[in-house]
């Protein structure tokens, strides 16, 4: 089956296009959002928090 989707850790939706980091998936949309999100944007801390979960799981 080519239609292989993963649950994005940022938006929590099933997506098939995106990147996987340490077995955690981030969809293409969220990846693009993160890239263009400014440090002063109110969503930035949320992204950092979600990303920290990845590193935390990796080191667990
Ligand atoms: Zn997403």
TrEMBL record:
The cross-references to Pfam families, in alphabetical order and at most eight, read: Gin
InterPro entries hit by this protein = Sigma-G_inhibitor_Gin
At the top level, the lineage of the source is Bacteria
The name under which this protein is listed is: Inhibitor of sigma-G Gin
Q: Which organism is it from?
A: Brevibacillus laterosporus (Bacillus laterosporus)
